[in-house]
Structure prediction request, 196 residues.
Amino acid sequence: DEVVDWLQTFTADLQTLVAVPAKTPLSGWRSRHGQTAEGAIESEQRIELAAPVVEFSEQGAHALGRAYWAEVERSTLGVVRSVACRGGVQLRLLGRGPALLQLGEPEVVASGSFVRCRYAITGGVLARRPQGDISFAQADGDRLELSSTIRDFVPTLGARQGEPHWTGALYDRLQSRLHVLISRRFFARLTRAARG
Prediction:
C-alpha cells in the first residue's frame, strides 16, 4: 500500500510538473489504452488539427520523430534523454547507463496526405522483450489528425500474461501516464508552433 500511495503522489506531482498550459487547447483529444491477452500494450492518443503541423514529406515525418524525443527530454527535465546510436535511438537516464528503451532506425512513410515516423522497440530495461513499436503520424483524411501510437509493446513493468491486471500497476501508474502526458505536450507544442 505504501508503494501504491507513493506512486499516486509521484504521478500527481509529475502531472503538475508537465501539465500542458491551459491556453493550449487540444481539439478533438482522444486517448485509448488497452492490453492484449498476451500482455502487450496498445495505446493511442490523437487530436484534430486546423492546419498541418509538418509538411507531408519524408522530412515532415522525421520532424515528428525528432519533436517527440525532444519533448521527452523537456518533459522529464532532462532526466530521460534520447541518444542517437548505430541502429536507432536509445532513451537513457541522464544520457548514460543502460538504455531504458532501445529503438530501431526511424521508418518513414510519406504521401500527399499522410506522414508517419515509426520506431521498432528493440530492447531496453523497460521492454520485457524486443517487440512492438511507437509511431507518430499526421493524416489528412475525413479530418486532419495528429497521433502518437504504441502498438504491441510488452513492458517490463506491465502485467504478465495470465497474471492479475493489478500486477502491472507500475506501468499503469507511471510509464503509461508519462507517455500520455508527453503526447499531450508534444501535440500542444507542435500546434502552437504551426500557428506561429
